[in-house]
Amino acid sequence: MVASAAARPLVTVQGLDGDMSTDQSTTVTLPDVMTAPVRPDIVNFVHAQISNNSRQPYAVSKKAGHQTSAESWGTGRAVSRIPRVPGGGTHRAGQAAFGNMCRGGRMFAPTKIWRRWHRRVNVNMKRHAIVSAIAATAVPALVMARGHKIENVPEMPLVVSDSAEAVEKTSAAIKVLKQIGAYDDAEKAKNSIGIRPGKGKMRNRRYISRKGPLVVFGTEGAKIVKAFRNLPGVELCHVERLNLLKLAPGGHLGRFVIWTKSAFEKLESIYGSFEKPSEKKKGYVLPRAKMVNADLARIINSDEVQSVVNPIKDDRKKDVSVG
């Protein structure tokens, strides 16, 4: 399915209102990165590893559970020898302390901040994961399976003209999304805003929402950032800084991506092709699929295979003896 969905040699650039007539209905060549093999196993692993790098270290207090002068009563009292809180006149006096089995005691193996929080991932594996996530954005089935609303989108991958990078007002950004059929997905993200369940709502994470489209632009300092940044669920990223956390949120392939023409044309130089290495990433060549065509039945029944396969031998000797 990946090969059939992204086998088009050309992709139409969707024109916007106000474009010159010469800019309408232009096409760009589909980069090889869009036909790279989709590897959810690599994407899931790399996403899990690099998402650990943003964790904030935590630990219990060193004093927790030990802020009392409890001592053991020793033997001969017909009670356990665990340390007990001294004194009298209160329920706390005589209660066991310090142990992890005690109420008010410390935990077992108190957490420390010098845990190995971060994870190192091989550079080539991270590049393979990003390439795989980019290729998945060109497969409509994967994008729809992720929950994006792309029924009105004219083509996948979706490429718009560079005039979108000059958009500065949010009202104009909404107009652009409506022209290319992507506003349904942005509206889905807007309507999904809700209050987070659990304690996170007390910790500056009160609201949650679904992910909308990812807008990838190719001009540094483009005005498009201001136009789209206030739309709920809509994210932006420069093509030279594509991030797996944005291309495959949660480790799930198939993010709905809107490319500008300049960003789409840069993919070939950034990630290279199957024969030519990347111009930006030293020595990186796109990974090849194990099989060009995964349809085994079509391969086996093809004329090329059947012409060299020996016919079925049926020279078995039949036992005709009567018992």
UniProtKB/TrEMBL annotation:
PROSITE patterns: RIBOSOMAL_L1E. The keyword Lipoprotein does not apply. It holds the Pfam family Ribos_L4_asso_C. Keywords: Ribonucleoprotein, Ribosomal protein. One of its GO terms (cellular component) is ribosome. This is (thale cress) hypothetical protein. One of its GO terms (molecular function) is structural constituent of ribosome. Residues 57-96 are annotated as: Disordered.
